[in-house]
């Protein structure tokens, strides 16, 4: 039987989920797709799609009209795939606010006072994300649509958010605990070694495969978030600050996977793993290993940079490895480096 069209299929924690893509209707994933009960549910969802109410007519030059045009613009489509999801979701929340009153309002009547009022009702980080959304919509209305003369968000200031240390770095004991639980040969262990050795985001890890390893021993990729290029040594001599034993774990994890697919972390169905679902999938793996909440794949990225700093790497070397464009960002990430270890490293040259 041919695969049914229009379905989303993925597995989380050993459970298989299937959704009808257009209507987001859950289907009985525990049944084969040619099972009569599965087919009944599938065709019911298809019937529901055919009978969906027509979309409400959107008023020309309203906030919703501008937002819809923006979502189809080169400006929006030029964002990274992961950030497109963030921006799209915030726009949808904006349009639902006040029962759609903001969505129906003429964009020409939007003022900074309206944006500030909306932000005051939100926590600091979501409020600042909303400000980014308004700035993007305002710039689009000015530059692309020529609908208004000035962006109503330009004079709105960001909300001061409480400072945090960000993602929690993993300790040596926690790293060993994960490795003890997830053996070489499992996708969870492979994801761990990819994120830890490369110091990459898991949204990048899901795109990587043998195709990205060059003949001269570099694993090279373009970051999904920033579009910056990164090259990390995997089959060549290492800089003196790199931990060779971690590279050995990485190589063993890669060599244990003999799947023919293009990406290392492909699903059991042979499909590329979703960048959106991957962080949750990995966090579940950490919980299954008995690790405390709060340890994420991004924490491994931070751990790699801390290790490099403790082994005498300069901020420029760390940034080259991780793909950070801002040295200040690297310095912020490595504040937890053990200062005594840094000062105990011999023959490292200048640190800064």
TrEMBL record:
Pfam families cross-referenced by the UniProt entry: Phage_integrase
Domain Tyr recombinase: 165-347
Superkingdom of source: Bacteria
GO BP terms in the entry: DNA integration; DNA recombination
SUPFAM superfamilies, per the entry: DNA breaking-rejoining enzymes (SSF56349)
Molecular function terms from GO: DNA binding
Keyword field: DNA integration, DNA recombination, DNA-binding
Family: Belongs to the 'phage' integrase family.
PANTHER family in the record: INTEGRASE_RECOMBINASE PROTEIN MJ0367-RELATED, PHAGE INTEGRASE-RELATED
Record-given protein name: Tyrosine-type recombinase/integrase
Native species: Maritimibacter harenae
Taxonomy of the source species: Bacteria, Pseudomonadati, Pseudomonadota, Alphaproteobacteria, Rhodobacterales
